[in-house]
Amino acid sequence: MRVLGIEGTAWAASAALHDTERDETFIESDPYEPDSGGIHPREAAEHMSEAIPSVVETVLDHAEQTAEGDEAPIDAVAFSRGPGLGPCLRIVGTAARALAGALDVPLVGVNHMVAHLEIGRHESGFDSPVCLNASGANAHLLGYHNGRYRVLGETMDTGVGNAIDKFTRHVGWTHPGGPKVEQAAADGEYIDLPYTVKGMDFSFSGIMSAAKQAYDDGETVEDICFSLQEHVFGMLTEVAERALSLTGTDELVLGGGVGQNARLREMLASMCEERGAAFYAPDPRFLRDNAGMIAVLGAKMYAAGDTIEIEDSAIDPNYRPDQVPVTWRGAAESVARAVDADADVKGAEATVEFHDEEVVKRRLPKAYRHPELDARLRRERTVAEARLTSEARRAGVPTPLVRDIDRREATITLQRVGEMDLAATLDADAVASVGEHLAALHAAGIVHGDPTTRNVRVDGDRTFLIDFGLGFHTGHVEDHAMDLHVFEQSIEGTAAEPEPLLEAFEAGYAAAGDDEVLARLRSVESRGRYR
Ligand SMILES: C[C@@H](O)[C@H](NC(=O)OP(=O)(O)OC[C@H]1O[C@@H](n2cnc3c(N)ncnc32)[C@H](O)[C@@H]1O)C(=O)O
Ligand SMILES: Nc1ncnc2c1ncn2[C@@H]1O[C@H](COP(=O)(O)OP(=O)(O)OP(=O)(O)O)[C@@H](O)[C@H]1O
Ligand SMILES: [Fe+2]
């Protein structure tokens, strides 16, 4: 089967031919390069209308030349329906419809972010990996579960590439900034910058303002670029590790243009090696926006009968990966769900050693992180965990007693509580009690920071909150809403039927908590989604 793909969501005017029998992909691309500033939607769309016809022409010629015997040069046309810039998407959509009509072949509408994921799965041969998409306009973790790609974690503000590009605009460099940051980083040294991870979500606004400020204050641009990479990619690697740990998956694939960065790939490879997981990063030609990935996924969709009629083929600038019915994969392929037996466990962050009455939790150094950042995070989190675990108990929230803390070794000894993790026994009453605990915690001005189903221990009808290492003091509604969002995401990522559990949780929170927080939760949810 031979599928022609067209891509043009933002900057890459690209066409490709994917031949499934030969497993070959021919790609022809023409990038839009702004003279100054970032991507201007109108200029980008003008570029698309000029460049798309000629890249398509080249691929059509290639298809004619390589078709053998009575083989059809093209069996279907696939195109990026979204997400992306509306004016660009419209031009690509029109071109694809016209081409499918002229060739009299079916049309396939592809989600660009799912294509970034699927190309890694295709090339690696992995069964059911977690995927980190690190692209310009997006940054998220996806895992397949019961017919959909679930968003396990995502940026709460901008995409990772856009964040980096904004910094480089501030220092007067042309678009795209990513490769220039990578080059400058080679001559830089470490400086401290903000680091923001909340469960498996993360945000870049704090670190980006700090980076601009550091530049205005006279820090060298090389040091800032080096440190940006260490912090930003450290965050992405940490959340990728959390996703592997939470789902129990041992395969990771990388997607998106920022994946071309060698330091990011090095960190992910190191993290995976340390935990015995397999890691795959596609070639750069398949990482940056390209029509090859559209043709490859288009072929899988076409083979599954997943084509669309012209009248249903409207583009969608906000098309989310979790909206896509995954027709080309079997239901049995869901990512595993980890349920721990109480043997000694290796969490995402720490190792936990069990004794009769106590557990010893050690935050071991992470080889992927810069040593200074590593030492800082291990120290800060150990201190926060010891302090907030005790403060939460004083606020009436069940938590383990803290028996001992060794700051230098980043080790805490805690009372052993509960019989199992909430993940192993997801029932509505237990989930409702977590809602009540979080409400009490928030009323005391504390957020947990990482309230997942594995950070709750269950003992009969009692539940205990553990793992306060990402917690902090705050009275902000926004921070409280993030706690609820993180918990709900962990339910959605692991429960077969999340709806009744989410309802129970919110009812538990509403009984003791602030309505404003629940209202803000709704806006956090809509905000974190792919703009
Ligand atoms: C929706 C779609 O239009 C969008 N596409 C997109 O963002 O292009 P992509 O090719 O995946 O990524 C481009 C980004 O990738 C960054 N980038 C490229 N090379 C880089 C490098 N060596 N290091 C860091 N960032 C790099 C660029 O600075 C830019 O921000 C997306 O996938 O989010
Ligand atoms: N006080 C405790 N009593 C009983 N079990 C515990 C206790 N603390 C931790 N555990 C067990 O160890 C596991 C890992 O602990 P914890 O979440 O604190 O470590 P972590 O490395 O931060 O994990 P993650 O980052 O994956 O949440 C928990 O899911 C739980 O099963
Ligand atoms: Fe992209």
TrEMBL record:
PROSITE patterns: GLYCOPROTEASE. Binds 1 Fe(2+) ion per subunit. L-threonylcarbamoyladenylate binds at N133, A134, S135, G136, A137, D165, G178, E182, N261. It holds the Pfam family TsaD. Its EC number is 2.3.1.234, 2.7.11.1. It catalyses: L-threonylcarbamoyladenylate + adenosine(37) in tRNA = N(6)-L-threonylcarbamoyladenosine(37) in tRNA + AMP + H(+); L-seryl-[protein] + ATP = O-phospho-L-seryl-[protein] + ADP + H(+); L-threonyl-[protein] + ATP = O-phospho-L-threonyl-[protein] + ADP + H(+). One of its GO terms (molecular function) is tRNA N(6)-L-threonylcarbamoyladenine synthase activity. ATP binds at D344, V345, K346, G347, A348, E349, A350, T351, V352, K361. It is found in: Cytoplasm. Its cofactor is Fe(2+). One of its GO terms (cellular component) is cytoplasm. Coiled coil: none annotated. Keywords: Acyltransferase, ATP-binding, Cytoplasm, Iron, Kinase, Metal-binding, Multifunctional enzyme, Nucleotide-binding, Serine/threonine-protein kinase, Transferase, tRNA processing. One of its GO terms (biological process) is tRNA threonylcarbamoyladenosine modification. Fe cation binds at H112, H116, D289. Required for the formation of a threonylcarbamoyl group on adenosine at position 37 (t(6)A37) in tRNAs that read codons beginning with adenine. Is a component of the KEOPS complex that is probably involved in the transfer of the threonylcarbamoyl moiety of threonylcarbamoyl-AMP (TC-AMP) to the N6 group of A37. The Kae1 domain likely plays a direct catalytic role in this reaction. The Bud32 domain probably displays kinase activity that regulates Kae1 function. Component of the KEOPS complex that consists of Kae1, Bud32, Cgi121 and Pcc1; the whole complex dimerizes. This is Probable bifunctional tRNA threonylcarbamoyladenosine biosynthesis protein.
